[in-house]
Design a protein that fits this description.
Serine Threonine Protein Phosphatase 5, Tetratricopeptide repeat, 30 helices, about 0% strand, disordered C terminus
C-alpha cells in the first residue's frame, strides 16, 4: 500500500514537472518575442507545436511570431489550418482576426473577436486570455480600433488585476491613443505585477522618448537591462541615443551589446547603416541598407527603409527617397514613427503634393507632446514653405502655429493673411485681414491689404461687398498714412489712385475722384500718373484729350486696374 502511494506521488510530481516545463517553454518563447529575438521565439513555438499540434496556446504564439517577422502569410496559413480542425478555438479565432485586421478586413476581424468572446464566456465572464489577445491585435494592426482595445483590456484587467501582460498591452493601447500619462500608469501596473518584465519598463521609457525627457528615458532603459540583461531593444535605443549625441564609441559599445543579445541576423547591419547616416556617409548608408533588403526581402524591417529615405534626402535626391518613405509608412507601426519622420515625408513630397506636406506637419505637431519642440517643428515648416515660395502652405502652417500657441497673438492674423494673399487665396486673406483689423484698427497695413485682397476679388471695381471693402480700406489707409507721409507714401499713392478710379468710373463722381488724386499728390507731388489723371479730369467738358474721342472719363478700365494691382506693393 505504501509503495502504491509513493508511485502515485512520483507520477503526480512528474506530471507537474511536465506542465511546468510546458508553461516555462511558452513563457520562454514570449520572452524571446518581447525582446525581439523573433527567430528564437519561432524555434521555441515550432518545437512545441511539432510535439503537440493541439497545443493551441503555442499555435497562437507561433502565429504572433510570424506577424512580428512580417510573415503574415505564414500566420494566416497556420491559423486557417488550425481552425479547420478546431473551428471553435477562441484564441485561434482572435489570431485569425488579427491577420484580418492587418489585411484591412476590419468587419471580419471584429466578427471573429466577438465570436471568440462569446465562445470563451463562462459563469465568470469572458476569458482574460482572449480579451488580452484581442487588445494586442487591435493595438498591433494599423486598422485596429484603439478604443475597442482599451475597452477589452480594461475588462481583462478588472478580472485579473495581477496579469502583467494585460497591463503591458493596455499601456501600449493608451500610447497608440497618444495618452502618455495613462500609458505610463499601466506600464507601472505591469511592473508591479511582474518586476522582471523588462518590456514594460522599456515601453515606459519610449513614452519619455517622445517627450524628450532624456534623463528619464536613459534611466528607464538601464532599469530594463537590470531587469533582464538580455533585453536587446534597450541596448538598441541606448545605441541610437548616443549615436545622436555623436558619441560614436559609446554608441558602438551598445551596438555590440545589442548584437550579442539578439538573434544572428543580416538586418543587424542596420546599425552600420545608421552610423553611416549620422556621419553623413550617405553612399555607405544606402549600400548597407540595400544589402539588408537583398537578404531579408519582404521581412525587411521598416527602419531600413527610413534610413534609405533620410540618406537620399541627404544627397538631395527626393525622387529616390519617395519610394522608401512610402514603404516605411506602409510597413511601420504608428508607435515607432516619430514626429521628425512625418516632417521628412512632408519635405520629400514638397514639390509634388503640398497637401501631404501640410498633413505631415499637422501629424508631427499632434504627436509631439513637448510644447517647445512642437512649436519649433511647426516653425521649421513655415520656414521651409517660405524657402520654397509656397505661400498657401506657409499660410496653412501659420494657422496651425497660431492654433497651437499657449497665448494667442492677434498680430499673427496679418502675416498669415499676407501669405494667403501672396498665394492668391484672396478670400482667406480677406477674412484674416479683417480679423487683424478688429484687434488693430489703427494699423495701416491691415486696412491697405484688406482693400487689396478685395480688389483682387473684383478688378472691375464694381461688385459688392468687395467694392465697399475696397473704398473703406483705401480711405482708412489714406487717413492713417497722413501721420507719416514719407513712410507710407507708396500705400497712400496707390490708395488714392484706386479711389479715384472707383469714384470716376463706377460711382460717376468726378469731384471725389479729383479730391483723391489731389490727396495722393500731397504724398508724392512728382507722381506723373496721378498728375496726368488729374489733368484729364479737370479739362472742360467737351474737350477730350488726344486719342479720346468718346467724351467718357478716362479713368482706369478693368485691364488697367488689374495691371495696377500688380504694380503697387
Amino acid at each position: 500500500m505504501k509503495m502504491v502511494k509513493i508511485t502515485i506521488a512520483v507520477l503526480l510530481a512528474g506530471l507537474l514537472e511536465i506542465a511546468g516545463a510546458r508553461a516555462q517553454s511558452i513563457q520562454e518563447g514570449i520572452n524571446h518575442l518581447y525582446a525581439e529575438r523573433n527567430k528564437s521565439a519561432k524555434d521555441v513555438f515550432e518545437k512545441l507545436v511539432a510535439t503537440n499540434p493541439n497545443n493551441l496556446e503555442a499555435v497562437y504564439w507561433l502565429g504572433q511570431t510570424y506577424i512580428a517577422m512580417e510573415d503574415v502569410k505564414s500566420a494566416r496559413d497556420l491559423y486557417s489550418k488550425t481552425l479547420q480542425a478546431n473551428g471553435n478555438a477562441p484564441l485561434i479565432l482572435v489570431g485569425m482576426g488579427h491577420v484580418n485586421l492587418i489585411d484591412g478586413k476590419k468587419d471580419e476581424a471584429r466578427q471573429m473577436f466577438e465570436t471568440a468572446i462569446n465562445l470563451s464566456t463562462g459563469k465568470k465572464g469572458a476569458d482574460v486570455g482572449v480579451l488580452n489577445a484581442i487588445g494586442r491585435a487591435s493595438v498591433d494592426a494599423k486598422e485596429g480600433d484603439v478604443s475597442y482595445a482599451i475597452d477589452k483590456l480594461k475588462t481583462a484587467a478588472q478580472k485579473d488585476p495581477k496579469n502583467a501582460d494585460v497591463f503591458l498591452n493596455l499601456g501600449d493601447a493608451y500610447r497608440k491613443a497618444h495618452e502618455g500619462g495613462q500609458a505610463v500608469t499601466n506600464y507601472d501596473m505591469a511592473v508591479s505585477a511582474n518586476p522582471a518584465m523588462a518590456r514594460a519598463i522599456y515601453r515606459k521609457a519610449m513614452v519619455y522618448y517622445t517627450q524628450k525627457n532624456w534623463e528619464l528615458f536613459t534611466d528607464l532603459l538601464n532599469k530594463a537591462i537590470a531587469a533582464d540583461p538580455k533585453f536587446a531593444p534597450a541596448y538598441y535605443e541606448l545605441y541610437y541615443y548616443y549615436l545622436g549625441k555623436l558619441d560614436f564609441n559609446t554608441a558602438q559599445d551598445y551596438a555590440n551589446k545589442y548584437i550579442a543579445n539578439t538573434d544572428p541576423d543580416p538586418q543587424n547591419d542596420y546599425l552600420v547603416a545608421s552610423t553611416c547616416l549620422v556621419k553623413k556617409d550617405y553612399d555607405c548608408a544606402i549600400n548597407t541598407s540595400k544589402g539588408i533588403i537583398s537578404k531579408a526581402g519582404e521581412q525587411t524591417r521598416p527602419r531600413t527603409y527610413k534610413v534609405l529615405a533620410y540618406a537620399y534626402v541627404g544627397k538631395g535626391d527626393t525622387a529616390s527617397a519617395k519610394q522608401y518613405i512610402d514603404q516605411y509608412f506602409t510597413k511601420g507601426k504608428e508607435e515607432d514613427i516619430i514626429p521628425q519622420d512625418y516632417v521628412l515625408r512632408g519635405q520629400i513630397y514638397g514639390s509634388s503634393d503640398p497637401n501631404i506636406v501640410y498633413e505631415s506637419y499637422v501629424k508631427a505637431a499632434q504627436m509631439d507632446s513637448v510644447y517647445e519642440s512642437k512649436m519649433k517643428t511647426i516653425q521649421e515648416g513655415v520656414d521651409w514653405a517660405k524657402a520654397k515660395n509656397n505661400k498657401i502652405l506657409e499660410g496653412q502652417l501659420r494657422l496651425l502655429q497660431s492654433a497651437n500657441k499657449k497665448t494667442p497673438n492677434p498680430a499673427d492674423a496679418f502675416f498669415t493673411g499676407l501669405a494667403f494673399y501672396q498665394g492668391a487665396d484672396y478670400k482667406k486673406a480677406d477674412s484674416l485681414f479683417k480679423l487683424y483689423i478688429a484687434s488693430f484698427p489703427d494699423s495701416l497695413y491691415g486696412h491697405y491689404y484688406d482693400a487689396r485682397a478685395n480688389l483682387a476679388l473684383d478688378t472691375t471695381l464694381s461688385v459688392e461687398p468687395y467694392l465697399t471693402s475696397m473704398v473703406n480700406g483705401f480711405r482708412k489707409t489714406l487717413d492713417i498714412a497722413a501721420s507719416n507721409k514719407e513712410k507710407f507714401k507708396n500705400q497712400a499713392v496707390a490708395s488714392s489712385q484706386f479711389l479715384a478710379a472707383i469714384y470716376n468710373n463706377t460711382k460717376k463722381d468726378k469731384d471725389s475722384a479729383v479730391y483723391f488724386l489731389q490727396k495722393g499728390l500731397e504724398f508724392d507731388p512728382t507722381n506723373t500718373t496721378l498728375a496726368d489723371f488729374l489733368k484729364e479730369l479737370q479739362k472742360p467738358a467737351g474737350k477730350p484729350s488726344k486719342g479720346n474721342s468718346g467724351g467718357k472719363p478716362t479713368g482706369l478700365t478693368k485691364p488697367n486696374a488689374e495691371a495696377l494691382s500688380k504694380q503697387w506693393p
